[in-house]
């Protein structure tokens, strides 16, 4: 099939080409699908009903509970870290105001390189 400018040349294919025959032969599934539905029921109208809805709803409730729990725990961690940062900043300010070594450990008053005994 000749291509013109990178596109398919539809004039070269024609209307009765082998390509149309190949498309038409592959459009019907083989073997034909069988339906297990009762007569008179359309496949598009069948739904999972209550037995399909309840598990999905239960999973959604569990996920919401987990998300709320995670949010609460993350807030607690952030609050605790902010409190520790404020305490360390206050201790460093107090140590600097007294004239102590600025490299001193904020909690013990020892220089940072001195190990506990």
Automatic annotation (TrEMBL):
Q: Where is the composition biased (Low complexity)?
A: 95-110
TM stretches of this protein: 50-70
Q: Where is this region: Disordered?
A: 95-117
Q: Which UniProt keywords apply?
A: Membrane, Transmembrane, Transmembrane helix
What protein does this entry describe? Uncharacterized protein
Q: Which organism is it from?
A: Pengzhenrongella sicca
